[in-house]
Amino acid sequence: MTTCTNQRQTRLALLDSQRRVLERIASGAPLCEILETLVRLIEEQADGMRCAVLLADTAQERLRFAAAPHIPDDYQAGIDPFLRIAPNMGSCGTAAFLRKPVYTKDTGADALWADCRDIAVRNGLRAIWSTPVISDDNAVLGTFAMYYSEPRLPSPDHIHLIDMATQMARVAIEAKRGEDASRQLAQELQGLSRRLVELQEAERKELGRELHDRVGQNLTALNINLGILKGLVCSHDRAEAGSRLADSAALVKATVRAIENVVSDLRPPMLEDFGLMAALHWYAKEFSLRTGLAVSVGGKEPSARIPADIEIALYRIVQEALNNVAKHAHATTVAIALRRSRSEYEMSVTDDGVGFRTAGLGVQSSRPGLGMVTMRERAQAVGGRFEVMALPGSGTRLTVRVPV
């Protein structure tokens, strides 16, 4: 009866240890902190036992101590040259090399410790058992080691304990590896997105310059020539030719205006010359004339000029937001607001339309529209946060916050 009770208490203690380690993993704790928690919990399960977790380097050549709260510093420093993943490298190096457990009964006599037995013996570490931690892709992540001060081999309970500890160590290490890989990828993609935005803006700027310098000037010269020809033709009473020339001149003027609008979209001169607030006022006026929406702009230009990459990002977000409102929201008014606090720039676009659930603009949708994705990526490319929320009753507010 007593034996069954003890076994049940041991199982409960192990389950509790697993739960506590998993909680540390789920909370995003640093790997060294998770592994130290694991080591301490395993040490509580057997009297006189000390534990450690060693991690392998990326080249799969060496090990290093990652969590060893009760292993003497002298031992850790002295054994370091022998922590190679190779045969006859003590218990841990050999276990990692063989990819199977190595149970050293007595470091003072075992051949695996021939070159470093003095380090273990003088620190009172006679029995050292090590099990390799192997990843799902068959890489050696490290080892889990148990130490006793007297020579001995592991009992079945010890083996069960070290197997559980090794499994938990694998879960913790791979979880953190996944987080690191994902973070490196929340960073490479962000850098790529920023680079694409920069290239896009550079191409727009160059195209705008080309349209202005070549096509615009050519059309202006053509319009002048048409005016001269009209005067010459009309002086000879050629009414039909004069009418066609006049029509051609009107088409040239309309084309010039259209190109000027395209150039302004590609390379907004207001933004380059006078800053974001002036450009927003100008664009809001032009947009209102074109669509009939009443667009207002609130706020004032910050005392210090906003960095160029942030200015163009916020300006493009406003362009995309207003286009989305005109296409989907069935709104009558739109309000743009810009402000700066000590820590960030904040810009919002608020409309009185049907709301994003109906308009198809919502972030809650499983497949957000391309415009929404583009705006979010532009905000993230300059380190900002992008939010969209439905307003009570109707309407939508889009907010972008970018650190100063």
Overview of the molecule:
The protein is of the alpha+beta class and 404 residues long. It contains 13 helices and ten strands. The chain has three domains: 2-184, GAF domain (Beta-Lactamase); 201-267; 268-404, Histidine kinase-like ATPase, C-terminal domain (Heat Shock Protein 90), CATH 3.30.565. The chain has helices at residues 2-26, 31-43, 73-79, 90-98, 117-122, 156-184, 188-234, 239-266, 269-274, 276-291, 308-329, 356-359, 370-381; strands spanning 50-56, 63-67, 102-104, 127-134, 140-148, 294-299, 333-340, 344-351, 385-390, 396-403. It is 55% helix and 17% strand.
Rg calc:
36 Å
Q: What fold name stands as the CATH topology of the largest domain?
A: Beta-Lactamase
Chain-averaged pLDDT? 82
- Compute the number of strand runs: 10
Q: What oligomeric state do these chains adopt?
A: single chain
Helix content: 55-70%
CATH superfamily of the largest domain: GAF domain
Unreliable residue stretches: 358-368
In the CATH hierarchy, what is the class of the largest domain?
Answer: Alpha Beta
